[in-house]
């Protein structure tokens, strides 16, 4: 009986995991979803004056946090994350970082992520697609 319960538990775990991955779509729009999570792939870089890290095959995992206007950006390749960045909607399907200007901006839509973010002498860049 214990073996049957264990097998059933493993089956349920695999089923839920499969369903979770299948429900994520690259067509998800970061503007119109209460919950958004998506991976963008492309060139990313980071420089803090003493450390430089860049790759053309990196990724950025983007998640919308509970506030509804703030997003987190988890970079691959050991690049530090950007968390709690606030956005405003621009157009139908585009988000732009609050306070964007010519030298510091983050722009995200359902297909593309562009980052040039400078803070405290540190610079993050990304040119990625989904």
Automatic annotation (TrEMBL):
Extent of the signal sequence:
1-22
Keywords for this entry? Signal
Stated name of the protein: Lipocalin-like domain-containing protein
């Amino acid at each position: 009986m214990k073996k049957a319960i264990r097998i059933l538990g493993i089956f349920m775990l695999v089923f839920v995991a499969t369903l979770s991955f299948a429900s994520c779509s690259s067509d998800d729009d970061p503007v119109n979803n209460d919950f958004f999570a998506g991976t963008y792939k492309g060139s990313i870089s980071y420089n803090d004056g003493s450390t430089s890290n860049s790759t053309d095959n990196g990724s950025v995992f983007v998640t919308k946090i509970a506030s509804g206007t703030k997003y987190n950006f988890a970079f691959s390749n050991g690049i530090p994350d950007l968390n709690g960045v606030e956005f405003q909607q621009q157009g139908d399907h585009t988000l732009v970082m609050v306070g964007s200007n010519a030298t510091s901006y983050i722009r995200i839509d359902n297909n593309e992520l562009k980052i040039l973010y400078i803070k405290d002498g540190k610079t993050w860049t990304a040119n990625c697609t989904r």
